[in-house]
Amino acid sequence: MQDYELRDQFEQWAEPLRATRAPAVAALRSRIRRRAARTAAATGFAVAVVGLMAGLLVAVGWVGSGKPGGPALQAQGSAYPAPPGQPYVFVNSSATFINGWPGPATPAELKNAATGKVLKVLWPVHRGVSFSAAAAAAGDRLFVLAQQDSDGTLSFAEIRIGASGKPGALRQVLPDLPAPPGMEVVNMAVNAPATRLSFTTAASNSYGPSGPSGSLVVYNLQTGTLIGSWPVAFDVGASSQFLGYGNNLLASIGTLERGRNLLVDTTTAFPPGSSLLADSRPFGAGADFANLAAGAFSQDGNIGMYEGGPAGRVLLVEVSAASGKVVRNIPIGPSSAVNGPYFCGVLWASANGHELWTQCGTRQLAIVGGHATQIRLAWLLPTNTTSGASVFAW
Amino acid sequence: VRHDDQFFEEFYFASYGRTVALVAAITGSRHEAEDVAQEAYARALARWSRLRGYDLPEAWVRKVALRIAIDSRRRLRRNLAATVRLAAQRLPAGPEPADDLKYTPLGVALLGLPLPEREVIVLHYVADLPVHVIARESGLPVGTVKTRLAAGRRHLERCLTSRSEGVA
What we know:
The structure holds 2 protein chains of 2 kinds.
Chain A: H1 3-18, H2 25-60, E1 73-74, E2 81-82, E3 88-92, E4 108-112, E5 118-122, E6 131-137, E7 142-148, E8 154-160, E9 171-177, E10 183-190, E11 196-205, E12 208-220, E13 226-233, E14 237-242, E15 248-254, E16 259-265, H3 276-279, E17 281-282, E18 296-297, E19 303-308, E20 313-320, E21 326-334, E22 344-349, E23 355-360, E24 363-368, E25 371-375
Antiparallel strand pairs in A: 1-2, 3-4, 4-5, 6-7, 7-8, 8-9, 10-11, 11-12, 12-13, 14-15, 15-16, 16-17, 18-19, 19-20, 20-21, 22-23, 23-24, 24-25
Chain B: H1 2-27, H2 30-46, H3 48-51, H4 57-82, H5 84-90, H6 105-111, H7 115-125, H8 131-138, H9 142-167
């Protein structure tokens, strides 16, 4: 067969496909909204890491406790010492469909974030499903993991890391919770004392969370009682994180028009049917924080961070919560990395946001006061670019 | 902003069919190809302020679409082993009206190719890209592209020739 004959066959084969009519641009915008909801879910995990690590720094005395810090951890092949203390990361082996075509249950790994060493392989408490979301408590070396059965039932399990750095057993916390059909967890947070768990749910389809509505739910982890449950509407995304070391929950709700940051004191329970707006107070300067629905605040709540930027590069944008103004833009990598196989964003932040670790593709930086130094940790945090994947945690 | 929107729409409507054809040659399914193409264009739209400055935004979309398609193939293969029973229940008994690519002689031959060779073949014959451009876009040495192209072509020729002989 000659090359031109093969080319002719391809031409005939591809011709009707090339004539396929593109759907309206509105359909693409709808996809962007769905994807933003997934980003919010993934960022929820990044927030968890930020929270955990910031807490660890306090726990080991690097920030403000007055105790001597532990030995600096020299990551293999790195020219930059990691902060004292052991940052940990929870990595799901693969994304899992919640609806649509269910994949096999996959285990997750608990890793040392700086060295990449696997401390423990975790299997979900219930058989046949994978973990779908994760959160870490600041300072308590505790992860809470969510899983959702095919009938929608939500269950949560925790794992604690002992002072020696050895993880304990995975154990279920809270009773199994029924979830409305078609809803799934897109974001989770645990407060520093590990007494409050919050999670955001969103309507889902086979492509993952589709929005634009869901709910924000808070439980008392010690007693298993419900603190509050509020309906929320969002287009761009919704995320939550605990600020400081108490019960103050910051909910970032993003719509196409504007973003809204609301602070809720979750010390006492709220009556059923109450409204989030009535039960909270605005946080920040009232500026448009829409981007922060897919970003994060520093643990002390002073600095908001999200990724943006002009052609060719990704900037880490830091915004003052007090004034709503951009404090600085820090280039962290090429824009081509955004759709690559490795994570692009903040890996770790100190409690006040002054010191950061970022990764964008294969480029890792340590940033102190806005001054960036290239570093090389022993592993790269992966991302997931597959379409059709549902909520996952790394 | 209006100018940007118009520019994107022109680019999107002009190149969409080409992207669908490219992805369909990887996945063998028109439905899946359209899904993947729309996902790639949605990502392009979200980053249009950056992409509009590129010489060839279509190359970016092509790259993203292929990666999504290939990742989706790999994921499917991983999941398949453990969901054989479920999959068997879902498989259609025969070709559906808009999903018959995998049942054409060329489609069958293409799907028999390993993914790395299929990707190169599709970029060359469907996207009509020369070897050096494929090498640049894929990040592969030119020699590797030529080797895969030759191996893929041999496989296609073998399949298509034996099929036509069988029919005769």
